[in-house]
Amino acid sequence: MVSIAHGLMTAVTLVCWGMSLYKLRDLARDRDNRPLRALCLALIAITISMTLQPLAAKIDELLGIPDITRLLSNCLSLVCATAAQAFLLFMTSADVSTRRRVRRRTIALALTVAVMIMMFVVTLLDGSRSDPRVRVTEYDGGPSHPPFQFAYLAYLLAYLAYLGWSLTQVVVLANRYAAIAHRPLLRFGLRMITVGSLWGLAYVAARLVAIVLANRSSDWALITDAVVVLAFSTSILLVLIGSTIPSWGPRVGLDRLWAGAAAVRDYYRLYPLWTRIHAVLPEIALLPPPSGVRGALSIARDASLRRVRITVEILDGYATLRPWMSASVAAHAHDAAQEGGLLGDQQTAMVEAAVIGAALASRLDGTPPSGEAAEAVALPLGPSRDSAAGDLDAADQVTWLAQVARAIESPMAAQIITRATSETSSLDTQPSER
After folding, report:
1. How far apart are CA 423 and CA 330, in angstroms?
2. Of 235, 252, 269, which closes a domain?
3. Are residues 236 and 362 in the same domain?
4. Burial level of 408, CB count in 10 A (0-12/13-18/19+)?
5. What residue numbers bound the domain in which 68 lies?
6. How far apart are CA 404 and CA 277, in angstroms?
7. In a shared domain, residues 305 and 327
8. How far apart are CA 260 and CA 222, in angstroms?
9. Residue 114 pLDDT more than 60?
10. DSSP secondary structure string for all residues of 128-146
């Protein structure tokens, strides 16, 4: 396990060099790009940090300072974490407030590095450590004399505390930016940064466990060493890919692949609603519905066209069902959805699903068109009741109809439709007062 983890670390180091040089080329073309400058700093810092680690023994011997490579590597890791925060902050804004936030993080980094350097200098005064380099039993156990042990522990805790806080900030910032990002690859990259940062937090946790279990046994030392290296390497790899995939992804066709996969997903999300409408109104289908393996392959091959077609056919079904739509069913569905605890768009989607489901049931039963059709609200309702069908662009329309398709498949929708249609039927059969 240890050899695999260290092999992964070597591979990640090579990838780091490739990605760093790739982004430096972009920076040479756009030197005033603040997010790109921060990203390049993060990549260069972590690349040098990982490159130094296998060369630690020779560098320490060359400089004549035991463990100096560890100090340099740890400090560069903190620089990377700070630059990553700056990258995410500058991606959303470059105003005075953002620059102030970046400045505060830079000051915190400088203070942490200063503490680490002071504690490192103190540990050098302990002459009892014959080999103070990065072996887990000594690296986490530290010096043998109490004053130096305290300094060594302060060094580690300062490093891990700042790194843990920084990674937590990266998770928050990446998630916040992913929620508003429109480019699929950018959104995917930010999600990868989030997952990579969580692996980084696992690295911090593993290091803390290693400190607690220091000098317990050689087996525990080997296990914690492997976990630390594995978590650190995985974290760097995921963050590295996530931060650079928006730029190199389109060049290898990932954007087209992603768009095709999204179209296939949308088609199958809309399919339940289309199936219900097609069962009652088969004339909406421009072509026979695909089936079997060949059908699945044709959907994958022409996913974008299939998505457009199924959306148009659903809306054609809406238009055909208009005379059977009832305002009273919509009101009943609204009350039932509210009683069921649905709010906002979920409630609106449930109302639309109930109106469509009731109209389909009425049409299937041969019920005459409703006298309330003129009073019924126009469908689709959209993400808010203030949005008419014409206000929705194609992407929003697909997203909304997929939400309706999910609602119409729910047990709550079945209950609302059954109750609404039965009550409507009972009202229609009651003798009128003379």
Report:
1. 13
2. 252
3. no
4. buried
5. 2-252
6. 13
7. yes
8. 45
9. yes
10. T-S--SS-HHHHTT--SSH
The answer on pLDDT for 386 being more than 50 is: no
CATH code of the domain containing 179: 1.20.1070
* Spatial contact of 203 and 232, defined as CB atoms under 8 Å apart: yes
Q: What SS3 class is residue 372?
A: coil
Q: From CA 102, how far away is CA 66, in angstroms rounded?
A: 33
Q: For 243-286, write each residue's pLDDT tens digit.
A: 999 888 888 888 888 889 999 999 999 999 999 999 999 998 88
Q: What's the maximum distance between 2 C-alpha atoms anywhere in the chain? A: 109
Count of domains for the chain: 2
Q: Which residues of 42-64 are buried (b: 16+ CB within 10 A; e: fewer)?
A: bbbbbbbbbebbeebeebbeeee
**Structure confidence at residue 373 (pLDDT):** 57
Q: Burial, 259: exposed, middle or buried (Cβ in 10 Å; 0-12, 13-18, 19+)?
A: middle
Looking up tokens 């044709």 gives 298
350 exposed, middle or buried (CB, 10 Å; 0-12, 13-18, 19+)?
A: buried
- Pair of tokens at residue 303: 């996913």
Calculate mean pLDDT across residues 357-372: 79
CB atoms within 10 A of CB 250: 14
d(CA 114, CA 7): 32
Cis peptide before 368 (omega within 30 of 0): no
CA neighbor of 317 nearest in space, from 350, 364, 349, 351: 364
Return phi, psi of residue 422, to 5°.
-65, -40
Higher pLDDT, 214 or 290: 290
Provide φ and ψ at 232, rounded to 5°.
-65, -45
Note whether residue 433 is domain-resident: no
Domain final residue, candidates 252, 269, 290? 252
* DSSP-derived secondary structure letter, 193: H
List all residues 6 or more positions away from 48 whose beta carbon is below 8 Å from its beta carbon.
Answer: 76
Q: Which residue has the tokens 């906002």?
A: 344
Question: Within 13 Å and on the Cβ side, how many CA atoms surround 350?
Answer: 25
For 232-245, the pLDDT digits (tens) are 888 998 998 999 99
Torsion of CA 343, 344, 350, 354, to 10 degrees: 110
Helices (H), strands (E): how many in the chain?
16, 0
Does residue 238 sit in the same domain as residue 335? no
Nearest to 354 by CA among 401, 422, 416, 423: 416
Residues with Cβ within 8 Å of 107's Cβ and at least 6 positions away in sequence, in order, are none
Distance in angstroms (rounded) separating the CA atoms of residues 398 and 389: 12
Q: In whole angstroms, what is the distance from residue 26 CA to residue 247 CA?
A: 9
